[in-house]
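Appendix B, example 12.
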Amino acid sequence: MKLKFYIPVIGLSVISVAPHACINTYAFELGYGGLDQKTAQRQLAQGHLPKTKSVEDLNDYGVLLIYAHHYDQAIKIFQHIEQLHPNLSKTAANLGTAYELAGQSEKAKYWIEQGMQRDPNLHQGSEWIHVKILDAKIQQQKDSTWIQSHDVLGLDFGQAAEPKAKVKTVQFQHKHYDLDKILLHSQTQMDQRLRFVKRDPISAQIIFNMANIEMLNYNLADDTVELLYRRAQDVGYHNPKLIEARLDYFQQSKWFRFKAYFVNIYQTFKNLIVRSLVG
């Protein structure tokens, strides 16, 4: 699998230093130019309040509070929604995100898991990665060096210049995720998180592994691999020497380019055959 559509995200400007993911609105999409901290604060200063007491308006007011960094108020709003309209997946996910931003990772994990139970397909089924991120944050709070010897998702691509997948599937609860699915779900989670993060070794590690998977897929298109490795470096990956070694291998290895050439030819013919059979 080759993912081309997250490339614009990698170069976005930083809005805040607090990493998060998975905010859900009813009226508008977030993270795509519609709302940022300054806009949210300005709307609140102008007296923006829910138009009605509907779950949609209350939810989107809570989201506005999150973007304005009024996390405690946002938590109260989502708790109120939960009391009035229990068991909504969006409420649980937003409450989890508000708790995460407020620094309460344990409560955040509980509500993100509640959101998954209510809707297993929430955020294209990628919320298991959000839970893994929260688990890592809890461990980091206990030991700031945890990330240096553990992988957030349980992956292992070795320490050599050429990445090799020592782990090809990850199990979470009763589901198994292969590398292509992990790549897709990582993109979904990072797409919002990268809009709010400046330095975060947990996010950096996930981005680093996205680059590793793309290299194993022999993706030479759109500078994807280089952009991901550089973004991992910018966000704070704990081993910058390994990033440079991977980049040097990707850019300079003739053997890698030789394999990539034939793999891509094979994939092109395979796709043509599949299309002819389907068509």
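The radius of gyration is 20 Å. The longest helix spans residues 254-278.
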